[in-house]
Design goal:
Elements lengths: L1 E5 L4 H17 L4 E6 L5 H8 L3 E3 L10 H25 L3 E4 L5 H10 L4 E5 L6 H6 L5 E4 L13 E3 L6 H8 L11 E6 L6 H10 L10 E6 L5 H11 L2 E5 L5 H7 L2 E4 L3 H10 L3 E3 L9 H11 L3 E3 L7 H12 L2 H13 L5 H14 L1
Parallel strand pairs: 1-2, 1-4, 2-3, 4-5, 5-6, 6-7, 8-9, 8-11, 9-10, 11-12, 12-13
This protein binds uridine-diphosphate-N-acetylglucosamine.
Length: 362
Amino acid sequence: MKLLIAGGGTGGHLFPGIAVAEEFLGRTKGNEVLFVGTWKGIEARVLPKLGYPLECITAAGIRGKGNVARAKGLAMFLYGYAQSRKILKEFRPDLVLGVGGYASAPALLAAKGMQIPRFIHEQNAIPGFTNKMLATVADQVFISLEESRKFFPEGRTLLTGNPLRRQILEQVVDGGADERQDDAFHLLVFGGSSGAHRINLTLAEVLPFLGEAKGRLRITHQTGENDLEDVTAAYEEHGFQADAVPFIDGMADAYRWADLIVCRAGATTIAEITACGKPCIFIPYPHAVDDHQRRNAEALLKCGAGLVIIEKELTGELLARTIRELMDDPAKLRAMGDAAKGLARLAAAQTIVDEMLKAKKQ
Ligand SMILES: CC(=O)N[C@H]1[C@@H](OP(=O)(O)OP(=O)(O)OC[C@H]2O[C@@H](n3ccc(=O)[nH]c3=O)[C@H](O)[C@@H]2O)O[C@H](CO)[C@@H](O)[C@@H]1O
């Protein structure tokens, strides 16, 4: 059987798609998956490394911009639609899954035109424009959080959770414990799939306030492409033992290694952190559509599974104090990690594949 997975742009959309691909391919020998995305998206960098085939189409947003940009977006959409039809005719998928992001729209609409069973997955509490629109043509809508149900058609919407990649699930199965080579405190800092400039800047301000904690700390910091040099220089200047990298391929190992995480609150990040049961300080991205990252983070805060610092109130001094307090309170760290674990949904990829196969048979 053949599955086409459309969408991406950011890791938060793409990685759940990869999780579904892993599950689908594992079901029956001979199953095939093709991804459809754009050259600009993270999929163009990540999928070839993992050995997944990818077709790139033209796609852009058409929402909330000037008339010229909107007209251009529409023209690109029509072109992407024609490209998608061609891809569908050649690959002849049995099922099409949209995971959000611009490229999912032309592909799902082309699947509707060709009467191929089609599905979408929404990662966030508040859905993006593309998925709200595509819900009208999808046979079924899979959601990660109960909060988003109200945006989608009743009777065609199913709560599945956010699919987790095998590397993350394997860590859950083996307990996620790190075999310690040292008695240091491990801090993982990352800013979603493309890094977070504001978190990068603030970390440089945090360092002078960490005082004697410096000797105990080992830091791994994902910076994104642009701030690597500045962040590396800041750690060197203040004498910290830190690894700054633009992107972490093995996130499961990074989670396993971490005693505490400082990060944004994207939906896929949250799904992974709850699965791994790790304590977190969330700094939600304030410009995400409808402030959905803050909602994501506050859901964890409410359950004692994470702390939240909103960007408006973020200072180096405050973040340093919060990190130090947690470093000195292992019981609280453990309680936060356990509470996070209680929120995990581990079977999302399985449920989604089961449901798609069921729908195909009907
Ligand atoms: C700014 C913005 O609007 N971001 C959105 C985007 O975020 P973004 O793409 O940052 O998504 P998430 O934070 O949800 O997920 C990040 C993903 O990237 C992976 N990762 C991250 C860093 C790294 O070095 N290596 C790596 O593999 C993580 O393991 C995770 O799988 O999509 C999410 C899901 O729709 C939304 O909730 C976010 O609000």
